[in-house]
Amino acid sequence: MGELMVEKHVKYILAVEKRKDDFESVVMEHLRLNGAYWGLTTLDIMGKLAAVEQDEVISWVMQCQHESGGFGGNIGHDPHVPCTFLFDLCITSMNSAAMLAFTHFPILTSQNKKHGQTSIKSTHHKRWHSRHWQCVLLRNLGVAVVSLTFQPDIAALQNEDGSFSGDIWGEVDARFSYIAILSLALMHQLDKVDVGKAVKYILSCKNVDGGFGCTPGAESHAGQIFCCVAALAITGSLHHVCYSWWVLSSLIMIDRVHWIDKGKLVKFILDCQDKENGGISDRPDDAVDVFHTYFGVAGLSLLEYPGMKPIDPAYALPVDVVNRVILGR
Amino acid sequence: MHGRPRKAPTTEEQEASAIKASKLRSLQSQFLQLHHNKIYTKEALDVSAKLLESNPEYYTAWNYRKLAVQHNLNLPEADNNEESIKSILDEELRLVENALKRNFKSYGAWHHRKWVLSKGHSSTDKELLLLDKFQKADARNFHAWNYRRFVTALKNIPDEKELEYTTERIYDNFSNYSAWHNRSVLLSHLLKEKAKGYSPKDNVFTEEYEFVRNAFFTDPDDQSGWFYHLWLLDQTVKLETLLVSSWPPHGCNLSLPMDGSFGDCSFSPFTSRQSNTRTLPLILYFSEVVENICSSTVEVECENIVSNELVWRSLSGDETASAHAWLTYLNFPEEHANSLKVYQVKVSLARSQGIFSSTGVHHGNSSHIAFTVSISPHRSEHVDLKNEEKISWSDESFCTHEAQFLESVLANLFHIERTKVDEKVVDYQWNVTTVDNEIAHCRELLATTNCKIGKLTLARLLMAHDTLMSYTGTSHRNFSHHTEVLQLYDDLKKMDPAHFHYYQDEYSLVLLKQIISNQELLLKHCCKYKDPSSPKINNFCLRLNDLSLSRIGSMEKLLWVQVLDLSNNQLQSLEGLEVMQLLSCLNVSHNKLCSFTALEPLRLLRSLKVLDISYNEIGAHSIDTRRYLCSSPLNHKSGGDWKAEESEMPWAEVADNWEAYTIFKDLSLIQLDVIGNAVSDEKIKLLLIKLLPLLKWLDGEVADN
């Protein structure tokens, strides 16, 4: 097993941030804010946040703000609350005492039978939310200049049944519930929405296999499980997750989501590094990108890889950032 | 990038990429300009269409299309003109279809189609045809399945018809988990509605068992069918919510204070802080998590007790309104006369008066428990804490009881048989027959193939069988499947080491069940504390040490435990201990507890005096896996209380040590051992001394307050 090439990854992330003209950057333009979150959080976990020019980042982030108060994925784009938060995967075994430990961590695993190893499944949804990450960015940089003018409209996106829409066009998805709850919690404004109803809606997305889908009746999905469980964690409603041996254990048991071999996964992530140019990919020898670099490093943090700052499983931010924002420490 | 090999691009590729990039870039800027200037002409629409066809994830362009549709539908030429309305909406459907061809997992594209359809456009046939195309290309595309559910709801396609569709898809491919999932959703719905042909559920389930059997007999290693099977089994063993046990147990005769056989209980929870009453905790334990246990759903009949003044609280780690176990306190007046006073207590749960379980199964039967409480005239003398000796957990401190004595105590007080509290005997014949039938099929399959999920299913079926038998009240305690199930988990640990920890958890639960439900085995784990002069420790100790337990369970049968030794196991959390309201001494040293938050269940144990958590892994891990499973300032529900709470300590100190603070602030320990944990430095010891004013012994030394 190799080791994590921290310096190479720093170089890679900084290079991606500067790069604006190749095809990949243009295709991903609408989620550049997300890219910033991935890159900055990765740097922070590796203890390298000082490598970026913080004034520049903040000034760019503020330009993504829409006149309505919300943020778009890039300058000039429509505001959109949450977007795809599909951590189709990564990591983690852990606390066997809590059946729901697997859901307690952002990142889930699937076994790739063909390759005989744990692999990172693909995510094709890259529209990330904006407002949340904007807030996060600023917090990451230790600057509390979040304009609170847009709070009322996250609250306005809550529907009668407790669900949240992604924007004024009404797409409903439990992912949006997570991001809305997360954003408001980070801003100490959770009391602006009906938390009880929000929790009720999330629970209505729960399936007989113990997992969660994006709307009631929709099939369970690792990314959705993360969003729903994390939202329940933040609202203090985790006890609603049924972890009777009867239901959830089965989900853990099947080869899609289960207790995994920590050592094997660490090795797999390290094998996905581009040892020459930095960056981490979805599987060894695929092209690297900044979100898999983030998933990989965040995964190593959860796996307690030496030298990584711990990451909070529900907020998907470094623990010290969460403590600073939530506990005021 | 997914599926794209990592290699440096050639010069030609770089050039081609640059050309593509500049084309897309110019399309994007054209589009943004049109969008910001609200231009919705045909030419403008073409630009957005081109952009979306090459990049369906560009969500702002979908928003623009919706604005354009609204704008164009409001133009005078579209007004009430079917033709032009149709052509506007058709164009959107065409664009979505093209975009989906590029990326059929685009949330924006699927949502746009729903939005158009909600305007009452397009035919059912057309949509189902389109779906068929996508579902054939990728049978597991959850976007397509979600869209299918949307269309069938919008067009009122009956569930029965959709159920047939899942049958077809499953016959195409047994491992289509999406189809199995949809089947469970549809069937749940039909059963709930009691649709024609779907009631009673027994017949439906018998057919479903047969259907799914085809799948796993065809390919035992495919897990989709097994998953569905597990759901069926869950439905088969889901019964009415029952009261499974209580403290004091039904039929027992309890003395306050305890007679010699039950040990001297100066520190027992039975003595209240008020001097003129004696307090007895009353605990009810249900087969499911239940809500709404209160004075209007539970009636307590006893002289001197006013039932509707009793306050019930749930015994769940996070102190929410639902739990397996519920607690109230009964106060008996102190008798000054020279005679013994005996109280008859009757507790009744009325039928259908609002007790409901989180699984939606209502408490069905009216049940009651009855016991007697004797209050003796003599009250044991107050023990001076200052003169307390340390409790030692070494093996030498314990010895075995005489078997005869133990049996009599168990029979009366600990009452290990399940409390038979339900008056009505419910007919579970179908459930039992079905489970037996499945056990037979499973054994048949395993005779020819060594399939891990088959073994796991057999283990679960056998446990389900035992559970059902215990509910029917016909179980014979010496006939259970525990030994066979333990063997199955042992096999699985070897066969499938990747899931070792999961099997170990299950193994632990079955092992505990075996010990606790078998009187002979249980007696071997019951000990006596040797030093009779120590009034602090009860004579009756349960020692479950050195068993490799990674989880604890069967708590409903352990409500009576006052001294518990769980040392030298593999425990990572103490989940479940919150119901042991009589517990006064606990040893969990030499386990795998990773954080103070893992001790959360102890917060509810007001009678806990002696705690040994030495030699665990508290503080040794950077990731706290219990962080969100306890009351903390990090979650919204309890976060508010934290701020409001008055603490003598400065907020900074509380916030920096909230894990220790949250666990220890409500405990009144007199002896604590924390040595051998990464966290146990002088600083944390000082904090513990501050948080525990009654503490006398810390790590074997006199705690200097």
TrEMBL record, chain A:
GO cellular component labels: Rab-protein geranylgeranyltransferase complex
Which family, according to the similarity comment?
Belongs to the protein prenyltransferase subunit beta family.
Tell me one GO molecular function of this protein: metal ion binding
Q: For the Prenyltransferase alpha-alpha toroid domain, which residue ranges apply?
A: 4-95, 154-238, 241-316
The reaction(s) catalysed by this protein are:
geranylgeranyl diphosphate + L-cysteinyl-[protein] = S-geranylgeranyl-L-cysteinyl-[protein] + diphosphate
Q: What class of enzyme is it?
A: transferase
Report which superkingdom the organism of origin falls in.
Eukaryota
What is the name attached to this protein's record?
Answer: Geranylgeranyl transferase type-2 subunit beta
| Pfam families according to UniProt | Prenyltrans
Which coenzyme or cofactor does it need? Zn(2+)
Q: What does this protein do?
A: Catalyzes the transfer of a geranylgeranyl moiety from geranylgeranyl diphosphate to both cysteines of proteins with the C-terminal sequence -XXCC, -XCXC and -CCXX.
The free-text note explaining how the cofactor binds reads: Binds 1 zinc ion per subunit.
Q: EC number(s) of the enzyme?
A: 2.5.1.60
The record ties this protein, via InterPro entries, to: PGGT1B-like, Prenyltrans, Ptb1, Terpenoid_cyclase/PrenylTrfase
User: Which UniProt keywords are present, listed alphabetically?
Assistant: Metal-binding, Prenyltransferase, Repeat, Transferase, Zinc
UniProtKB/TrEMBL annotation, chain B:
Which cellular components does GO assign to this protein? Answer: Rab-protein geranylgeranyltransferase complex
Which molecular function GO terms apply here?
A: Rab geranylgeranyltransferase activity
Chain's role: Catalyzes the transfer of a geranyl-geranyl moiety from geranyl-geranyl pyrophosphate to cysteines occuring in specific C-terminal amino acid sequences.
- Name-wise, this protein is Geranylgeranyl transferase type-2 subunit alpha
Q: Which family does it belong to?
A: Belongs to the protein prenyltransferase subunit alpha family.
Q: Which reaction does it catalyse?
A: geranylgeranyl diphosphate + L-cysteinyl-[protein] = S-geranylgeranyl-L-cysteinyl-[protein] + diphosphate
Gene this protein is translated from: RGTA1
Q: Which residues cross the membrane?
A: none
Q: Which InterPro entries match?
A: Leu-rich_rpt (IPR001611), LRR_dom_sf (IPR032675), Prenyl_trans_a (IPR002088)
